[in-house]
Specification:
This protein is of the alpha/beta class. Helices cover about 50% and strands about 15% of the residues. β2, α3 and β3 form a beta-alpha-beta unit. α1 packs across α2 and α2 packs parallel to α3.
Length: about 110
């Protein structure tokens, strides 16, 4: 029998690992939810950001089932997150821009 942790717990663990590196200035989450519904992923991202009190800029690129609902969830969460429907290269540019403007003293 497999026991799978809820998405928010797994995402929280991932955010904690990523943010343990002081050189990280922004995070890009890129998900293609072919089978998995993007709205479930978005709710997990929102919960993980709140749980970890993530201060780094976050760019979220989702594609797949319920992507419009997922983007609305990210938007309505009032998190410091940029939800985009751009190509991967454009999302990467956005995260680079966010990292360049990140000031940990203000966040």
């Amino acid at each position: 029998m497999w026991v799978v942790a809820p998405r928010s717990i797994r995402l929280s663990a991932a955010f904690k690992i990523i943010t343990s590196d002081p050189n990280v200035k922004a995070i890009l989450v890129n998900i293609f939810g072919g089978i998995m519904r993007c709205d479930i992923i978005a709710n997990g991202i929102v919960a993980a950001v709140k749980e970890t009190q993530l201060r780094l800029p976050l760019v979220v690129r989702l594609e797949g089932n319920n992507v419009q609902v997922a983007r609305q969830i990210i938007h309505d969460s009032n998190l410091n997150a940029i939800s985009c429907d751009l190509r991967m290269a454009e999302a990467a540019e956005k995260v680079v821009q966010a990292a360049a403007s990140y000031n940990p003293e203000i966040s």
